[in-house]
Specification:
Helices cover about 40% and strands about 15% of the residues. With about 650 residues, it is an alpha/beta fold. The chain has 4 domains: about 260 residues, Thiamin diphosphate (ThDP)-binding fold, Pyr/PP domains (Rossmann fold); about 35 residues; about 150 residues, Rossmann fold; about 140 residues, Rossmann fold. Helix 4 packs across helix 12, helix 17 packs parallel to helix 19 and helix 22 crosses helix 26. The longest helix is centred in the N-terminal third of the chain and has 22 residues.
Length: about 650
């Protein structure tokens, strides 16, 4: 149970580098593990971050840094959100108060931050592929160090991880895989492979038999046996192992030696398991069982809630004085909430509509839909490619699939969007959450979707300016079902959160006049969430005698050609395109391309000046969304300044 008073951290205070772990006894390491948990909870109560996963991996991290030596040995953290303990042990504890803060410590691993971080990580299921590549490079360069991939059971459901294991078993390189099994991704794991891993934990019989076979083999190594007798003994051993019906044997059939399950919260057991394999040259996988949220009772009981948390009040709080409880403020509705509610209402009207998500049911708000329509809800685990192609198959067979997916994760399924949905013009709706800037940094910024989707034939690319428009976009896309439609929305509080009522069919290729300004020649052509930014910038412009016209361009594809022709062919106009996405290939690019095509058709026509307000060609770091928007020129104040500078007021 978590104590009210903050406990001392005497062991942790003495750890300035991983090398000092080698001088501690197992009992001291176990005490250090508890101090680390207290430190993680204390810090995240102020900064927010991934809580439950980091509480679960403490002993594994201690064991890895006790047995191996980074950066000489390479540790590759899958996803990377469980790296907080690793950061504490590698000289970054003093920076922990800046975790996930603007210009502070990243919430993921990144080699630019420390030499102990072997590779950037933010997406799931990449670590084993990286390990195989680095092991091949190590062997080619005749180096001598260990390459270790740390992956969760959720990450192992991703096809890329299974592809890497298949290749590793074939080429037999010296790679160690640590399987951190807590039965969770963001939400609970689903699928045959997760059930398969569960069965491993339910039987220790194979482990006992395997140890006995290994002991016999060790004794026989010292005996003087003829090659024929030795071959017969090895054949018997192989057949004995193959006859035991245990899930763990599948890894060995693929060519990767399996050991475990190991209690992941017994640091001595973890160290012993690592010691047994550290000098082996064949590929190894150690199956370690952990509890997500270990050591913090609220997170143990609800690891989904405490997977990723904002700054929060500890339960119980860390103070000697307990303040009276204050009534909780109602949680602001997000676009994710509105999207899910719209799906629920539409599902009552459309019996063939189904919803699909690749392990993001909690984050995208689809849990409620799954509860109400369990036979029409499909969580396919961390398998974005499968989710999209499965949706294509559903659509071809007569269903109306809606794929709810984060922008940053849709990047992993671009080929499937093109090959398995768009070519046949199938009616798949993509609800793209986290479109635009988010706090998690380079790996999670949803800023490329406008550009890569706009390049795909048959695909409509939409963005609502408020909840009313979001609801009607989803409704229209499902009702018409005449081709693929992508609807992107930000990770933000919803504009007009209570706008409900009857659905309306809308024209995707007709834009909307939001404000008719006195300055007809100054036009803010805003896409999606940037409409609200344009509205907030308007008073600042009006103070400078610029009463600009604001148009909501709800679709980056198709464009409203009729309205755009009027705007562009007004040679006295200045048009500002606003989007929360990358400049290269984005909405602004679409307007410039259209204008260039019109100019080519009729070179004598004078055109308006067009300026693009978007993200420049660079990756965006981590930090609070409002800070990032301002820093990258997309806040209301920065948009107003850009316009004023351009028109030279």
């Amino acid at each position: 149970m978590y104590t009210l008073a903050k406990p001392p951290t005497s062991f942790l205070d003495a750890i300035l580098s991983p090398a000092e772990l080698k001088n501690l006894s197992v009992d001291q390491l176990q005490s250090l593990a508890e101090e680390i948990r207290q430190e993680v909870i204390n810090n995240l109560s102020k900064t927010g971050g991934h809580l439950a996963s980091n509480l679960g991996i403490v002993e594994i991290t201690l064991g890895l840094h006790r047995i191996f030596q980074t950066p000489q040995d390479t540790i590759l953290w899958d996803v990377g959100h469980q790296c907080y303990v690793h950061k504490m042990l590698t000289g970054r504890r003093d920076q922990f108060k800046s975790l996930r803060q603007y210009k502070g410590l990243s919430g993921f691993v990144n080699p630019l931050e420390s030499e102990h971080d072997a590779f950037v990580a933010g997406h799931s299921s990449t670590s084993i592929s990286l390990a195989v590549g680095m092991a091949i490079a190590r062997d080619h360069l005749k180096q001598n160090h260990k390459v270790i991939a740390v992956i969760g059971d959720g990450g192992l459901t991703g096809g890329m991880a299974l592809e890497a294991i298949n290749h590793l078993g074939h080429i037999q390189r010296n790679v160690l895989i640590i399987l951190n099994d807590n039965e969770m991704s963001i939400s609970a794991n689903v699928g045959g492979f997760s059930q398969y891993m569960k069965r491993i934990k339910e039987t220790f019989f194979y482990q006992d038999i395997k140890e006995k076979l290994d002991q016999i083999e060790g004794r026989l190594d010292r005996a003087q046996l003829t090659p024929a007798v030795w071959e017969m003994i090895m054949s018997v051993k192989k057949q004995a192992k193959e006859r035991f019906d245990t899930p763990g044997i599948v890894f060995e059939k693929l060519g990767v030696n399996y050991s475990g399950p190991i209690d992941g919260h017994n640091v001595g057991a973890v160290i012993d398991a690592l010691n047994k394999v550290k000098d082996l040259s064949s590929p190894q996988i150690i199956h370690i069982i952990t509890q997500k949220g270990k050591g913090y009772e609220p997170a143990e009981k609800d690891s989904i809630k405490f997977h990723g948390v904002p700054a929060f009040s500890l339960e119980p709080p860390l103070s000697e004085k307990i303040e009276p409880a204050q009534p909780a403020k109602p949680k602001a509705k997000t676009y994710s909430d509105i999207f899910t509610q719209a799906l629920i209402e539409i599902a009552d009207q459309e019996p063939n509509m189904v919803a699909i998500t690749p392990a993001t049911a909690e984050g995208s708000g689809l849990v409620k839909f799954g509860t109400l329509f369990p036979d029409r809800f499909f969580d396919v685990a961390i398998c974005e490619q499968h989710a999209v192609t499965m949706a294509g198959g559903m659509a071809k067979a007569g269903l109306k699939p809606v794929v709810s997916i984060y922008s940053t994760f849709l990047q992993r399924a671009i080929d499937q969007v093109i090959h398995d949905v768009a070519i046949l013009n199938l009616p798949v709706v993509f609800g793209i959450d986290r479109g635009g800037l988010v706090e998690d940094g380079e790996t999670h910024q949803g800023v490329f979707d406008i550009a890569f989707m706009r390049s795909i034939p048959n695909l409509k690319v939409l963005a609502p300016r408020n909840t009313r428009e979001l609801r009607n976009m989803v409704y229209t896309a499902v009702k018409r079902a005449d081709g693929p439609v992508a609807i992107r929305f930000p990770r933000d509080k919803a504009v007009e959160p209570d706008a409900a009522g009857a659905f309306e069919l809308i024209d995707f290729d007709k834009w909307e006049l939001v404000h008719s300004g006195a300055n007809k020649n100054i036009v803010l052509l805003a896409y999606g969430a940037m409409v609200e930014t344009a509205k907030n910038a308007l008073p600042l412009l009006q103070a400078a005698n610029i009463d600009a016209t604001i148009i909501s361009a709800r679709s980056a594809k198709p464009l409203d050609a009729e309205l755009l022709k009027k705007l562009v062919e007004n040679k006295d106009s200045k048009i500002f395109t606003l989007e929360e996405g990358c400049m290269a290939g984005g909405f602004g690019s679409a307007i410039l391309e259209w204008a260039a095509q019109q100019k080519a058709k009729n070179p004598k026509v004078k055109q308006a000046e067009i300026a693009v307000v978007a993200l420049e060609d660079r990756f965006v770091e981590h930090g609070a969304r409002n800070i990032l928007l301002d820093d990258y020129g997309l806040s209301a104040a920065k948009v107003a300044k850009f316009v004023m500078d351009f028109v030279q007021v």
